[in-house]
Design brief:
With 492 residues, the chain is an alpha+beta fold. The protein has helices at residues 7-14, 18-26, 39-45, 55-67, 81-117, 125-142, 152-164, 185-191, 229-233, 334-342, 378-391, 411-420, 434-448, 463-477; strands at 4-6, 32-33, 36-38, 165-171, 176-180, 209-214, 217-219, 236-238, 242-244, 248-251, 264-276, 279-286, 299-304, 309-313, 323-329, 349-356, 369-374, 397-403, 424-430, 456-461, 484-488. α4 (55-67) runs antiparallel to α12 (411-420) and α5 (81-117) runs antiparallel to α6 (125-142). The termini are far apart.
């Protein structure tokens, strides 16, 4: 019996990137059917996959621990008892149905075998030859000599993953993500890099309203329920307070561009202030159950208690919804920097108006990625990298961070990414002048990437540096302009 998998589930199953499978399909190495993969076809291309091969899952765990600086609670990974029992019950029903179907086919084969063996009659010579050929093939096939062995280890691993995580498909965009344990659908979607609509944390705003097309869900929070009886009877639910019990399909419009997210204004509380050389890393937490909906790479306008204000890239990713991070540089306007450097402390409030900008990852592309950050241009780049890791599509991610201090201010974070993920490569490059900046990239980046034109390149730097780096790549490596995305460092 043929078993088809979505590309996301197949990639998770064999521990590779979704983009890697897409590339193999385009090259004819893998055969897909309407965007789905036969599990036997997957085993043919990845014959050495074993149930114990949990490398990719371990890497993802390490990434979440190191890159997002979170401690995962056990109940955030393992399904609760109710969800677990329901998933096992559904899989038991599927197993029983599959066994019944196999039994029916076995009975049919047992009945068909003697009937085929007894075929005889007064046939024309070519017909008789065809019948004999069919009989020989059929009886030979029943002996099992031509039957491919079932990929038992892959099937077992797939069953295990289905118990641990539900697969969520979003229509009409076709995006996919996994809801692990008993995580609510909204958080799972954001962690998976899908820009579902949202606005609060308690279900009161109703913005995360989605329609269930198929599959089973459970309500896991006793928060407010602003949906009408009509909405509920028509299959709508709040993604922030329901978990996926089975694989589900939901219908909701997701944000794909800056035009899809309205500018919001909210108050944040400063949680932590850390001065590293000439950069101040500010961690803020939400207040009053509000949450900012934004896309990776966008920026905000900040106003502090003394009235000073400035623009700053949102250095966090929507996949980490617990806080917002900003990297403030001494290149900001004087009044803003003086307040941030001398008076800003934990507990103070900051007014945020956001999001702005369209420096965003091309989520549809599976091309390898190159990120180039100059000084605290790393803030916007950090957000994009975390998003790229969340959607798990690029075979290769390269970060070139050009700096003038002793070392980049978040050097350890970048090294933790490189330690956790084989496909992530980190190259810090110390430079003192714009000439050195271009020389460093020409001497390091271009030789590193022989096929640099096949990459998507994202650059965040001062205005002049953005233009010079882009020009260098076009002149020296023939990179097409459409493959390069530029963002100036925000410091107004």
């Amino acid at each position: 019996m043929t078993q088809y998998l979505t590309l996301s589930r197949a990639a998770r199953l064999v521990g590779t990137k979704r983009g890697s499978l897409q590339k193999k399909i385009r090259n004819g190495e893998l055969i897909a059917f309407e965007g789905m993969l036969d599990i036997k076809e997957l085993q043919r291309v990845y014959p050495n996959v074993e149930l114990e091969d949990s490398t990719m899952l371990e890497k993802v765990d390490r990434y979440i621990e190191n890159a997002l600086a979170k401690r995962l609670r056990k109940d955030a990974v393992l399904p609760d008892a109710e969800t677990l029992m329901e998933r096992i019950g559904i899989m038991s029903q599927e197993l029983a149905a599959a066994q019944a179907e196999v039994s029916r086919y076995a009975g049919l084969m047992n009945e068909l075998k003697p009937r085929v063996a007894s075929l005889s009659g007064d046939y024309k010579e070519d017909t008789f030859e065809a019948i004999n050929h069919f009989k020989a093939w059929f009886l030979h096939a029943l002996e099992g000599e031509e039957l491919e062995p079932l990929p038992d280890s892959l099937l077992a691993r797939e069953a295990f993953l289905r118990v641990m995580a539900a697969h969520v498909r979003v229509m009409p965009s076709g995006q996919e993500f996994f809801s692990e344990g008993s995580t609510d659908v909204l958080d799972a979607g954001l962690r998976g890099g899908v820009s579902l609509p949202y606005g609060c944390t308690d279900g009161s705003c109703g913005r995360c309203r989605v329609k269930l097309v198929s599959g089973g869900i459970n309500r896991i929070k006793d928060d407010a329920q602003p949906l009408s009886d009509s909405d509920i009877s028509n299959g709508y639910f709040l993604a922030c307070n329901h978990t996926a019990v089975t694989d589900i399909v939901i219908d909701v419009d997701v944000a794909g561009s800056s035009n899809d997210v309205e500018v919001q204004q909210l108050s944040l509380q400063v949680q932590q202030v850390e001065r590293i050389d000439n950069t101040i890393v500010v961690q803020c937490r939400y207040q009053d159950q509000q949450r900012l909906q934004f896309l990776s790479g966008q920026f905000a306008r900040l106003q502090f208690a003394d009235g000073s204000s400035s623009e700053a890239a949102i250095a966090s990713c929507p996949c980490d919804d617990s806080a917002l991070q900003f990297h403030l540089s001494d290149q900001s306007n004087a009044g803003f920097w003086q307040f941030a450097a001398n008076e800003l402390q934990a507990g103070q409030s900051v007014m945020v108006k956001a999001p702005y900008g369209d420096f965003m990852l091309d989520a549809e592309s599976s091309r390898p990625l190159i990120f180039i950050a100059v000084e605290n241009g790393f803030a916007a780049i950090k957000s994009l990298i975390e998003h790229a890791m969340a959607i798990n599509s690029a075979d290769e991610i390269r970060l070139y961070w050009l700096f003038s201090a002793d070392k980049p201010y978040l050097n350890n974070l970048c090294r933790s990414w490189a330690d956790a993920l084989d496909e992530f490569h980190y190259m810090p490059l110390k430079v003192a002048t714009d000439i050195e900046l271009e020389q460093s990239l020409e001497n390091r980046l271009i030789p590193d990437c022989q096929d640099i034109g096949s990459h998507d390149i994202y650059i965040c730097a001062p205005d002049d540096s953005c233009l010079s780096i882009s020009s260098l790549l076009e002149r020296k490596a023939a990179v097409l302009d459409k493959r390069i995305r530029l963002e100036p460092i925000r410091a107004n």
